[in-house]
Specification:
Helix content: 40-55%
Shape: globular
Strand order of the largest sheet: 4-3-2-5-6-1-7
Order of helices and strands: EHEEEHEHEHEHHHHHEEHHHH
Number of strands: 9
Oligomer: single chain
Distance between the termini: 51 Å
């Protein structure tokens, strides 16, 4: 059996583009590589040839060399890594937003790691503006900086909503109405593969705990403004919500919730000591 990697993080930060980068690098070196976006077809680079192949599970052993890499994009119609790929024993890289059931294969295979991508910085968003169709957008550098500060570093959302924050606000408000306090509390202590939120509820998502180790993750909000709104779903009183979240996370066995508890402790040190 091979092993694998799941590239995950905030939606709209380039997880699929990361797969395309790997695809082109491997083609340049003539390494056998499969790229799946749809459940029943795939691009295959093998023996210096590019093929568009129908994927029939029974034909996979003959079609895909064991030394091939399989790139799986689960951000569209292909929800999870197909079992016939894991059974082939190839190295697999999946790109997926953190949400059930997109990473079910990880629950069956212990030798699969996360690679958590960072959101875009304000500087990166402004630099990327030159690649957008300026004639069709009113987005400016200033509006991108304001968007990043308020709503986080999703490039997809930034270039879509920065010129009209009222549209972004409508999406956020709609998602908030579909999330209750129990869902929020469970989310903060979930893993990327078991996160249960509405499709547009990614204002609570997965982020790298630090740059030193991208396998360690923290589930939180992409900005302080959105974090405040998520807390208000737990309790309208920010302090009450924070202390409730602290008590939930402080004894958790994984690093992410404990890191969140440490942040809360730093802000509410006296209240926690006397509670």
């Amino acid at each position: 059996m091979g092993f694998g990697l799941i590239t995950t993080g905030l939606p709209g930060i380039g997880k699929t583009l990361f797969l395309f980068l790997i695809w082109h690098l491997r083609r340049a070196e003539n390494f056998p590589t499969l790229f799946m976006v749809h459940p029943d077809s795939a691009l295959l680079w093998k023996d210096s040839r590019l093929m568009l192949s129908q994927v029939v599970p029974e034909d996979v052993p003959a079609m895909i060399p064991s030394e091939a890499w399989c790139l799986v994009d689960s951000n569209r119609s292909l929800i999870d890594v197909p079992e016939f790929l894991t059974a082939r024993g190839c190295f697999i890289i999946q790109a997926a937003s953190p949400r059930e059931p997109r990473m079910e294969w990880k629950k069956k295979h212990t030798n699969v790691d996360y690679l958590v991508m960072k959101p875009w910085s304000a500087e990166e968003l402004v630099s990327g503006l030159q690649l957008q169709d300026i004639s069709r957008t009113k987005t400016t550098a200033d509006s991108l900086v304001k968007f990043r500060d308020r709503s986080g570093g999703s490039a997809l959302d930034a270039y879509r909503y920065a010129s009209d924050m009222s549209l972004c606000e409508a999406v956020i408000s709609g998602a908030a109405r579909r999330i209750n306090g129990d869902m929020v509390e469970r989310a903060f202590t979930s893993s990327p593969s078991s996160l249960k939120l509405p499709t547009d509820g990614h204002k609570l998502s997965v982020f790298p705990l630090s740059d030193r180790d991208r396998q360690k993750y923290l589930i939180t909000s992409p900005s302080e403004c959105l974090y405040e709104r998520v807390l208000s779903i737990i309790n309208k009183d920010r302090e009450v919500a924070s202390l409730r979240l602290y008590n939930l996370c402080v004894g958790w066995p994984t690093p992410g919730p404990r890191a969140l508890a440490a942040r809360i402790f730093k802000r509410y040190h006296d209240q926690i000591k006397h509670s």
